[in-house]
Amino acid sequence: MKIKDYPTINREWDKKKIQEKTKYILKEIGHLQYQMYAQKKYSLLIVLQGLDASGKDGLTRELLKYCNPIGFKIKSFTKPTAEEYAHDFLWRVHKAAPARGDIQVFVRSHYEDILVPSVEGYYSEEIIAQRYRLINDFEKLMEHHDTRILKFFLNVSPEKQKERLMERVQIKEKHWKHKDGDWTTREKFSDYLQVYDRIFRECNEIPWHMVPSDTNWQKLYFVASEVLKTMRNLKLEWPDLKSELFNKDN
């Protein structure tokens, strides 16, 4: 299936019931996050990709509202700096990979280094194809280090995207979000979706989740449910007491 075949909204969900479930899920994520931080055995990387105005920032804020800030970090990958250009394209990403016990959210990620160069034609097909392979190897390496990876594409319709971009122009509290470049990128909506379709085919060893994102409450519920399921499967435990003063054998 291609992106256009996935829904941007689920019309069967009951908003009130879903919001009640979501609140419970978010609180349990907060509890498990603190337990994971204490245990320091596993880590979790949450990758959020999506077109402009798909709601990545708002989702991140709500998803972590019950988590302890000591155990999570957020990183957004924009245009590489001069220092980053001087290294391999995954150098800046590897530095931001989560330590054991941490949750790391990538609001835009290493996939930007395939997405934008492909649409804008910055690199040859040979270089782009190599990057697909290297990203797969990089993600395998992180999983080998007990990092669980969840990859989400926030699927927003062209109509809803336009509505949200216009809000950034019309509503004063949202002026700071506006970028003229977002409208230029919007003109290449279909081009970006074509590249994403290839990303989903070639970098799906760790599977992607297609998130209906025309409504914020559905988006949050979908992502939070997957995060909770993954954390539960880790079978997290509080670590044993390590103390010479209070040794149980004494």
The number of distinct helices, counting runs of at least 4 residues, comes to: 10
Q: What is the strand content?
A: 5-15%
- What would CATH call the architecture? 3-Layer(aba) Sandwich
Strand order of the largest sheet: 2-3-1-4-5
Please estimate the helix content. Answer: 40-55%
User: What Rg do the Cα atoms give?
Assistant: 20 Å
Form type: globular
Number of strands: 5
Topology diagram in text:
Elements: H1 15-39, E1 43-50, H2 56-63, E2 72-76, H3 82-85, H4 91-95, E3 103-107, H5 112-120, H6 125-144, E4 147-155, H7 158-170, H8 180-186, H9 189-202, E5 208-212, H10 216-233
Helix pairs in contact: 1-10, 2-10, 5-6, 5-9
